[in-house]
Amino acid sequence: MNIYAFISLFSSIVVFFLGNYIYYKNPDNRLNQLIAILCFLVAYLSFAEYGLRNADNITNAIFWSKTTFIWPMLTPLLLTIVLIVTKRNKILKNKLIIILLFLPSTVISLTGLLTNQLNNGLTNAYWGWTTILNLNSPILLLTVLWIIILGLTSIILSYMYYRKSSGSEKIQITYILIGLTVVLIVSLITELILPLNSIEFPELTYFSSAFGLLFISYGVANYRLPSLTPEIAANEIVRNITNFLVITDCNKKINYVNPVGLKLLGYIKSEIYGKSVDLIFPEHNKIRSKDLQHNGYTKHFETTLNLKNNDSIPILLSASSISKKTSPIGILYMGTDIRKRKAIEQQKRSIAKQTIARQSVLLELYKEDISELEKTLKHLTETVSKTLNVDRVSVWFFNKEKTVLTCTDIYILDTDVHENGLKLIAQDYPKYINALKNSHNLTAENALTHPDTAEFKDSYLKPNGIISMMDVPIWLQGEMVGVLCHEQTKNMRKYTFEEQDFAASISYIISLSLEASERDKAQKQIIDSLEEKNVLLREIHHRVKNNMQIISSLLSLQSSTIENPEMREVFHESQNRVKSMSMIHEQLYQTDNLSKIDFKIYINGLIKSLFQIYSSSLKQIKWNVDVKDVKLNLETSIPCGLIINELISNSLKHAFKERDSGKITVKMDSYNNLITLIVADNGIGIPNNFQIENTSTLGLKLVTTLVKQLDGEMIVNKENGTSFTITFKEITYMKRE
């Protein structure tokens, strides 16, 4: 046997088994049936070619040559397959089209069998016996033209379908297109081009057909897009379902567990098939056997699932009877692992409990007498440590010259003792002190590496075993006079926004206590002085701010009991609006100028607070504040602060949906008594037909109302995100009667 005869025999065997595989992959599908027929036809022709090349005389060679007469049927059959794949199978419903496709090929086949119009006999070449083409025959020319037309049509239709398809369809047609192209190119070269140029080379049409069929079959078998049978669809659904699934017979013996179930349980099939379902569902007695005998019965309940390693996990289980012609034949169990859901529920309950506890503590503290500073500080440090479960809580105060920080009281949770007297030189920690002055608090999950707390590494953190910190400045009459410190020594800790807010409230109480103490000492001296007026004004602002803090706390306490997410969001938004106004009074209290608000400081503090509420840790949302020397009176500050609060909150909630990053910019400037405020983001933008005057959302309605209150103008720019430009003049103070 020469090598070329062996190639033909090998191709025949490969394609024969390929036809069997593609047929039994989906025997009811027409496409699979036609590809199988094409494979068997190529297998037959390859075997005939093997006989021809291996023939030992001219008589046997002529016999094998005649058996290949049906070769012209390959191309119309291939085009039929392409029409089905490219979803043009409606064409095949026309019988005339079928006749026009296969009749010319049938005539060519009979002509080749009964006449010598296609070849002039046989010759024995180095690869075995081969036909001599009758190059002077017009029928041969028409045959070649017909085969080329059908082949090119198949390729063009496939390519057109490739251009407009996507996903699995595109992958499937790519394999088919490769297969068709290989067959057409190799056939033209070895059957026509080389013989016409008198170059002796073995014909490789059937070999290339086998190679091309491998691509076509792979595309159809692995990306089968034509109509699937219900049985195939059901098998795929069961095999790929994300929930675990168990099927038993009526005696509760396990017959099937899907791959997800086997992986979750830790068993292999041989270990669990045939075993009682009680092995994995210990609370199976919740399902009564007589109920499951009823056709269509289903029961849903929470239970536990026993794993191979003797662990058990919570699941949500559905048990349904399986019947055939109203007779029960088994039970279907479908379950969902609810460990994550249970953990989230537990976490929510824990957070709600902690929030209620913190708000209750605050409400009680606001009622207490805070005029005795030393007693108040000890009570506060101990209360905060136990409420937040912080290892060490301390209060530090600057001396008059602001050169030394002295620990007035420190409470250590483990030993339940109070200490004091430790001193730190302020000039050794410039970054830390500057960071506190410019923010509402300073949190450092890893205090040893945080840029604002690393200064303490060798002098304070390591000697005291401190890992994490949350420090809040203490203000008195616009001046930072001390620090409230929360220090973790046992483990690294990330303080939540609620914990930071609680700590800030405690800092305000200390400020109140300081002021009460100072006021008691100087009360007689300031009664007749102008300073008394300023102190009283500050106290008013402080009291207003604290009252707003109580309102915010009450809103937070109330929202923790609301299950409806939309209603809870309404409470949170109201809480943020109260806080934005509270910050105005807080700043007036902290500054020497009781009539003007420095908006650069105010906006930075407001944005930081809003980012802690709305910005997800999974998103990289940046912000930039460019505010010139703008100072506004109280009449203008409140509506302006609310506008900024609403616009930034709106950006954080809506502008960066389905985005991982973005930027919010706030600019503010004053020129010729005209103030310009710009709040912009580079998010997804708002619809082109959006009209702010007709908006239905409370936040933007509030913005429109506040702009009118300021007697200002607003322009909304929808390019490259959303930009709000508001121009207004400072409101003149109206004397009250």
Automatic annotation (TrEMBL):
<dbReference type="GO" id="GO:0016301">
    <property type="term" value="F:kinase activity"/>
</dbReference>
<keyword id="KW-1133">Transmembrane helix</keyword>
<dbReference type="GO" id="GO:0000160">
    <property type="term" value="P:phosphorelay signal transduction system"/>
</dbReference>
<feature type="transmembrane region" description="Helical">
    <location>
        <begin position="68"/>
        <end position="85"/>
    </location>
</feature>
<feature type="transmembrane region" description="Helical">
    <location>
        <begin position="138"/>
        <end position="161"/>
    </location>
</feature>
<dbReference type="InterPro" id="IPR013767">
    <property type="entry name" value="PAS_fold"/>
</dbReference>
<dbReference type="InterPro" id="IPR011495">
    <property type="entry name" value="Sig_transdc_His_kin_sub2_dim/P"/>
</dbReference>
<dbReference type="InterPro" id="IPR003018">
    <property type="entry name" value="GAF"/>
</dbReference>
<dbReference type="InterPro" id="IPR003594">
    <property type="entry name" value="HATPase_dom"/>
</dbReference>
<feature type="domain" description="PAS">
    <location>
        <begin position="236"/>
        <end position="283"/>
    </location>
</feature>
<dbReference type="Pfam" id="PF00989">
    <property type="entry name" value="PAS"/>
</dbReference>
<keyword id="KW-0418">Kinase</keyword>
<keyword id="KW-0067">ATP-binding</keyword>
<dbReference type="InterPro" id="IPR000014">
    <property type="entry name" value="PAS"/>
</dbReference>
<keyword id="KW-0808">Transferase</keyword>
<dbReference type="InterPro" id="IPR029016">
    <property type="entry name" value="GAF-like_dom_sf"/>
</dbReference>
<keyword id="KW-0902">Two-component regulatory system</keyword>
<dbReference type="Pfam" id="PF07568">
    <property type="entry name" value="HisKA_2"/>
</dbReference>
<keyword id="KW-0472">Membrane</keyword>
<dbReference type="InterPro" id="IPR031621">
    <property type="entry name" value="HisKA_7TM"/>
</dbReference>
<keyword id="KW-0547">Nucleotide-binding</keyword>
<dbReference type="Pfam" id="PF02518">
    <property type="entry name" value="HATPase_c"/>
</dbReference>
<keyword id="KW-0175">Coiled coil</keyword>
<feature type="coiled-coil region">
    <location>
        <begin position="356"/>
        <end position="383"/>
    </location>
</feature>
<feature type="transmembrane region" description="Helical">
    <location>
        <begin position="6"/>
        <end position="24"/>
    </location>
</feature>
<dbReference type="InterPro" id="IPR005467">
    <property type="entry name" value="His_kinase_dom"/>
</dbReference>
<protein>
    <submittedName>
        <fullName>GAF domain-containing protein</fullName>
    </submittedName>
</protein>
<feature type="transmembrane region" description="Helical">
    <location>
        <begin position="31"/>
        <end position="48"/>
    </location>
</feature>
<keyword id="KW-0812">Transmembrane</keyword>
<feature type="transmembrane region" description="Helical">
    <location>
        <begin position="173"/>
        <end position="194"/>
    </location>
</feature>
<dbReference type="GO" id="GO:0005524">
    <property type="term" value="F:ATP binding"/>
</dbReference>
<dbReference type="Pfam" id="PF16927">
    <property type="entry name" value="HisKA_7TM"/>
</dbReference>
<dbReference type="InterPro" id="IPR035965">
    <property type="entry name" value="PAS-like_dom_sf"/>
</dbReference>
<dbReference type="Pfam" id="PF01590">
    <property type="entry name" value="GAF"/>
</dbReference>
<feature type="transmembrane region" description="Helical">
    <location>
        <begin position="97"/>
        <end position="118"/>
    </location>
</feature>
<keyword id="KW-0597">Phosphoprotein</keyword>
<dbReference type="InterPro" id="IPR036890">
    <property type="entry name" value="HATPase_C_sf"/>
</dbReference>
<feature type="domain" description="Histidine kinase">
    <location>
        <begin position="539"/>
        <end position="732"/>
    </location>
</feature>
<dbReference type="GO" id="GO:0006355">
    <property type="term" value="P:regulation of DNA-templated transcription"/>
</dbReference>
